[in-house]
What we know:
Chain A is an all-alpha fold. Chain A is built from 24 helices and no strands. Chain A has two domains: 11-41 and 318-521, MetI-like fold; 60-309, MetI-like (MetI-like fold), CATH 1.10.3720. In chain B, 32% of the residues lie in helices and 22% in strands. In chain B, the strands form two sheets. Chain B has a six-stranded mixed β-sheet, with helices on both faces. Chain B is globular, with a radius of gyration of 18 Å. At the A-B interface, helix 1, helix 19, helix 20 and helix 21 of A face helix 2, strand 5 and helix 4 of B.
Amino acid sequence: MSPAPRAAAPLIMLLPALVLVPLGLVLPGLIHGGGWDLVGAFLAAALTPSLDPQVLQSVFGGLAVTAGMALLGWLASLLLGLGLGLASSRLIWQQLVGTAQPAEGIRRLLAVPRSIHELLWGLLLLQLVGLQPAVAVVAIALPYGALIARVVSDQLDALPTENVDALRAAGAPAAAALVTALGPALLPGLLSYGGYRLECALRSATLLGVFGLGGLGNELRLTLQSLEFHELWTGLWVLLAVMLLLELGLGRLRRRWLMPRRLELRSGRRNGANAVGRSGREMVLALLALLPVGVLVGHALAVDPLALTHWQTLPPWSPDWTTTLGLPWLGLVGSTVGLTLVAACLAVGLAPLLLLLTAPWPWAQRLLGFGWALARLWPPPLTALLLLFVLKPGLVTAGLALGLHNLGILGRLLRESVEDTSAATARGLEAGGCGPRLALLYGRFPPLARSYLAYGAYRSDVMLRETVVVGLVGASGLGSQLLESLSSFAWDELLALLGVYALLTLAGEDLSDRLRRRLLAEQPLPHVRG
Amino acid sequence: MPISPVLELEAITVPGRQQPRLANLSLRIEAGERVALLGPSGAGKSSLIAVANGLLAPGSGQVRWEGQPPARAGRRRRRQQARIGTLWQDLRLIEELTVQQNLNAARLAVWGWPRALLNLLLPLDTAACQEALRRMELDPALLDQPVAALSGGQRQRVAMARMLRQEPTLLLADEPLASLDPRLAAELLALLLAQAQPPRALLLSLHRPDLLAGFDRVIGLREGRLLFDQPLPRIDAGLLAELYGQANR
């Protein structure tokens, strides 16, 4: 008997796009009839954003707050992540104390802040201490810090230790040997990842604004809700320009400092060990220069960390565990997983499919890149609100909003990686009469297909965490229930929901890690989690 | 009705930075002809191969494949391209796919999307692929091996098998023997020459004049110009010295 067919990786890349079939069947039933004129007006307004001085002033004011919150949250997460990363590294404990046991414990503890989305941190803190500028900063710093800590410790523990051993054998103290032998190899990868997190922080700060924590996000939500589309587009265009400038600037720095890209789709083998000496000094100096900038921004935004210790008077807690147990847990978990699957299949499968469809026309690919830039900066809850103009609320609508946002992220990554692969095989196929689409599928997708899928697995686990941000319009899933319990001060429900949510995201993380290990088999894990 | 030449180049010029990469070059290759292309490094051999397989559009002059000028784009052009097989120096095999999937990649020009996708899932056209391997003196059991697992010699033969599976009338090869040891180079050249039977023709660029034995005609190219185009018996040490000697001066 012949062995069961094994699909080649480039084909598996496209399989998730099959979700379009059930979506195509379900969507007509979800259209509620009205609202097309609103969508038309929204799209038309893109070309005529408001240039009213008052609007511009409020947009730029909002942008300054959002950018400041992002910068501060990011800086704090870097410091936090570096410290916690060192504290959870097996290698460090082994070298300093002689046992790696404590590292394992700290790692497990860090899984908790990592599994809770920054929006939840933000809303929780908002309930506890009221609207403070420090809330958004801490909400970003906590989960990001835990994420960065994991990357730091993973990278540290993957480095060869021979150099450390050699220095220690020559009599160097443990700390000095670790810094000298591992610092230069760690720095470029860490900074590259750190740079990517700054992009994420800008998106997160915008999202937190949408939920009332101030800044441009707030402006965007208000203008969308009051149907002031011209003003909305003023904010969107400004945000898009800032985001693209940031991506461009970070890309330049990556090249200058020979840093690995956000994610090496092809191998992950290239490490940053070549970027030492002058570049190393530049990197450290640039990092140090950011600290006083952070202090100035903090001062300008009136961020006061001490304000977080002054809790508001909360309604008395009268736990009612029977109501909590009576929540439809199975349905909540099921719809959260369903929402994640819809979003993940859309994002992972559509990116290669759209690249293939537009392959013959360079202009269409540029347009696609532009659309993806808009999709990743546009916060998913706003996409969801926009979709509600024409669709009924529910799992599919929420999944669409989340999927489109992540499509912007995955699409950009895939497109950049495709452009980085050698064109030789594809050109060879074209010389044999193969069309541009099949030349892309056969000539350029195969070397990066497995890593793309591995990244897709990681991204799906991020999407599971992000289901909470579309919970508001999803009208389904743990996210929507969480927001409801939070706003009604039902702390017992909230505790139980957070616990289940954390367990679910940790299970998702474990599953996606296994999947990635299998996909990358002999290859090392992509050294950058983004 | 007279049969059109498989390849016809007429007054081809390809501009370059300092001097043209090809200058006013004309040649015809008839079905069944086995033509060697000689010349020192930078003489324009790769440019000539690239013009011949349509990857490089000349600045001026006319290319004709089997009597027809290249179509501008679209299905007709792809059908024309499918009649031209190229053996690349770097082989351009798809490392992540199996030998069979690589061999079938040569059929993408004539297959539609369903078969192209199915090829990534199931072994298609097994008999034809086995035959292609046998013609290259390879074990048909290699079909389900990933290309990355093959030895250097096997990879060369798989690349040749893939080119033939395209069923081309014009075989082009851009220095395919450059990085091979002498024994392997001689074996592969013999296999290639054996495939160039009418209606097929072969144009192969070479670095080594000692491998000319099986060719009918030799073209000498220097600084983008045609220095000579002679039947093999008329190639002597003097011509070769003129081709390489002056270039090295």
